[in-house]
Structure prediction request, 150 residues.
Amino acid sequence: MTSVYVLNGPNLNLLGTRRPEVYGSTTLADVEDLCRQEAGKLGLELEFLQSNHEGQLVDWVQEAGARVATGDCLGAVFNPGAYTHTSIALHDAIEGASLPVVEVHISNVHAREEFRRHSYVSPVARGVVVGFGVYGYVLALRGLHQTISR
Ligand code: CA2
Prediction:
């Protein structure tokens, strides 16, 4: 069965516990359930992961890229959290691994602070979903599935 990665960056483990006015009240475990349901409908196996550590995210990008290369994986839906706005390492990892990525942000990063408007990930992403809350993960999974043929 072809797999798809859903990668989550720093502080997303806190989802639903704080700042509900910005990120809603859905927890990351709920997001995982949502993604698992959608992946099932699309006939994909789900690898749902979260880390607060940049190097760990780089490792998973490389792992997913290696699995794409062997035909075992479609790509990744990736919410890099605040590393979106800082991480050249994640930019290089995605590019280096030739990993098809759909970048997701729960909030509309363009309607917030100026520093959230720049992404190091967007230039190496296939697509970007922003501002639809946690439903953005579902849209990103559908988009990835629709545009990558295996
Ligand atoms: O909107 C998004 O999905 C973000 O990627 C979320 C990041 C933020 O740094 C990005 O600019 C946009 C933050 C992750 C969640 O942080 C929380 C902090 C406190 C409570 C709950 C979540």
